[in-house]
Each structure stands twice: as C-alpha cells, then as structure tokens.
Amino acid sequence: xxxxxxxxxxxxxxxxxxxxxxxxxxxxxxxxxxxxxxxxxxxxxxxxxxxxxxxxxxxxxxxxxxxxxxxxxxxxxxxxxxxxxxxxxxxxxxxxxxxxxxxxxxxxxxxxxxxxxxxxxxxxxxxxxxxxxxxxxxxxxxxxxxxxxxxxxxxxxxxxxxxxxxxxxxxxxxxxxxxxxxxxxxxxxxxxxxxxxxxxxxxxxxxxxxxxxxxxxxxxxxxxxxxxxxxxxxxxxxxxxxxxxxxxxxxxxxxxxxxxxxxxxxxxxxxxxxxxxxxxxxxxxxxxxxxxxxxxxxxxxxxxxxxxxxxxxxxxxxxxxxxxxxxxxxxxxxxxxxxxxxxxxxxxxxxxxxxxxxxxxxxxxxxxxxxxxxxxxxxxxxxxxxxxxxxxxxxxxxxxxxxxxxxxxxxxxxxxxxxxxxxxxxxxxxxxxxxxxxxxxxxxxxxxxxxxxxxxxxxxxxxxxxxxxxxxxxxxxxxxxxxxxxxxxxxxxxxxxxxxxxxxxxxxxxx
Length: 511
Known about the structure:
Layout: H1 2-12, H2 22-27, H3 41-49, E1 55-57, H4 59-63, H5 72-77, H6 84-90, H7 95-100, H8 104-122, H9 130-155, E2 167-170, E3 183-185, H10 186-200, H11 221-234, H12 238-251, E4 271-277, E5 280-286, E6 303-305, E7 308-310, H13 324-329, H14 340-345, E8 346-347, H15 350-353, E9 362-363, E10 370-371, E11 374-375, H16 376-389, H17 393-404, H18 421-435, H19 439-448, E12 460-464, E13 479-483, H20 496-501
Helix pairs in contact: 1-8, 3-9, 8-9, 9-10, 11-12, 11-16, 12-16, 16-17, 16-18, 17-18
C-alpha cells in the first residue's frame, strides 16, 4: 500500500512540461502549487518517455541464473566485492532478502505502470486527433504490458497450466488510490498482458534507421511484435511466438544485426597493467569492447526496445564474473577463441584489476549493466526455437546460422549442424545462452522447466560458503546450493514493506 501511495503522490502532480527534456521534468520534485494537468500530445508523449526507466535494478535478475555463481577462489582475493545481498540472491535465499533489502525493481515497474495508466486516463479528453489518441493508447498499453510481464516473471512462479491459479502480482488498471492491491492470479495477469499486447498491436509506427531517442526508447510496431514474440514464447505458444518474431523481423530485420567481424575494442584498449603475485610482478593488459565506455546504448542498431538491468553497484560487481558452465557453452559447437562474443565481451584478466590474484575473465558488454530488452538476434533465436519445436528443425538450424555469420570468426565453425529435432533444440538453446546471458537466461530457466518437453529441464547447483543473515561464514566448509525444477524459489519475494503496509492484503510468496 505504501508503494502505491508514493507512486500516486509522486506522479500525479506533474509539472514543468516546458523543460528541455523528459528526464528534467520527471526528476523535478512536484508541489501542489506548481502542478499542472497534462493534456496535449506533447505532454502525454513526455509521460510515456518516462514510463520506461532504463535503470532497472534487480539483484534477483542479475544473480539467480546459472550464468552467474559466487566463486570461492575469486572471493578470497576480493571479499569487498561480495556483499551478502549478492550471495543471498545468487543462492536463492528468500526470507532475509524480502526484509533486509530495498527492491527498486518492484518500485520502478509500478511507477511505470502508474504513468501508463495516467496516459490512458487522460487520452480520451486530450487535445489530440483520433489518430494521435489511438497511437498514444497503444503505446501506453505496450508499456503497461511490458512492465507487468517483468513483474510477474520475477515475483510469481513460472507460467504453466499448473500455476495459473497461483498468486501473481497486484493489477493496477487505473490511477485510483482506492483500487485493490490484492495479488491477481498468474492466469489473470497473463490475460491482462495479452489484452494489452493485442491492443498495442494496432500501432502503426515504423522503427526507422534513425537510431536514437525516438526509436528504441519509444514504442514502435516492430517493438510490439518483438515483445509479443517473447510473451508467447513464455506461454509455450510456439505458433504465435513464431508469427510475431517473423512480423518483427519483417519490420526491422537481419540487416540491422551488428557484424562482430567488423567490431572492435574501446578507445582505451589495450590497457597495460601489472599485479604482484607471491612476490612476482605479472604484466597483463585489458581489452574492453567498443560498447564499454563513452557509448550511447541507443546507437546499438539491433534493438527494438531499449532496456538494461543492473545490480545497483559499480562496474566491478560479482555478476560480471561468469559461471564455469556459461564459459563452457562458448566452447561447444566450436571454440570460444573463434566466437567473437567471447573475444569482445569477456575481458580476460579482469579479476586482477579488482584485486584478486586469481585470473578470471569478466562479462563487460557495457559499463554498469547487462541487456534485457528485445532485439533482432532474439527474434532470430525465437524463430529458430519455434521452428525446431514444431518439427521444422532443419530450417531452424538454417535460421540460427544467419545469426552465427555475424558472431563467429569465418575461420571458426560458423554453421551449426544437427541430426535430429532434439539435437537442434539443444543447439539453439545453447546459442540463446551465448547471445543473451544472465537476465534472459533467468527467464529461460523458468520457462524451460515448465513446458512439456523433459529435455529442457535444468537443475541449477552452485557451491560457496554458508552464510548468516548478515555475513559470509568463510571459516566453515563449502556447501552446495541447489534449485530444483519445480522449486518455489523461482519466485522472488515481494518486498516485505509492501506486505506490511498493505495490512496483509498483499500476500507474501510461500517457500
């Protein structure tokens, strides 16, 4: 309840629409004396521009998958970079996490939803043409659907026929203060998302070649189709996921994929450095990808809709250090030495820079976060997976090889081959993991463990020291943490502050 009070009080009094940019007026502290009612197309566009915050912060998303795991050898040399909150998230601790940590992801998603609802409330009486009203309504519904999808796929159990009546998340359909905050079921949340997606698909706005604030940060027809493909993939509706992936690609296609064969390193690479290990000076150098520093994420032409996720800490956080199982995937179907994603986005020896004497690479696609939005490579991978699952596995391999032409050194094993449907599905899922690690991998684990194909099942195990509520107990033996296929810890805890302030109307997840 407290959250929704804060959202209403913080968003209802919107002012200073004459400012130079949406960030300015969204950050301006409102007051009753300066509040104005938005009513023009420009006003509503500014609200929508702020209705998707790129600063998504979630330890649960960053640390929960099998792409990230706490590493004992790294920990010994860099304990300050292993805060207990990271370890709790990485090993699926739920009770302490709900109480001890502020959850910005929950907060920001509902702020975004409130802004979408505000636009939907104002649009019918806005000073706009019917065409402009239809466009604004479709864009607002897309952003509301996108945010509910993010929420239900983090704080509720995975989508499956068995879980449809399990608690989802509160559905806020208006800006009304007295609207119930009781959690809708997972089935009800997905029904609302699907209806919003259906309405948003009426949008007719092209994603042009003018990459910048007006394209991947705003809502276009290809962006809606791409999100629809991701939505139906999670629902295991492979026919519809394929349909919308192809629609997205027809509106903004493979010609926009970055060819990593013509990529490069950042302006400050190589960075020569040295470290002393056991009295011996070890010289090394760091090579950062061109995306790492002084880089505008809106310039990445592959994107349909821009979204990044971070953990809330600086550039040297533990989520950057990949698990052994993730690194091993780059050596499947060829060698990671020929995979240009490994070459550019994994910085060798980075652990030395942050104080460890244990040599380990780090994932450095950009400065402080990792990618969670929709893009052209994802649509190719959804298309390939859906083709394979529907029996067209040979065509599926051809589809995924279109992406690999832009990702693998020509001297390496560019083209995948498969001799059966099962092998094709496995190779495509490995390619998804190589292309979209960490955040998308967590979403994938949820859906793969809840479909009707047992070959997808994944049990995740990680080894690290035991811990208390506040401390890592590194004087005790290492233990194994396991997340089983149907583990209820696939749902992150609702912030306990929201449970308390709602007087129990918002029910906590059970584990």
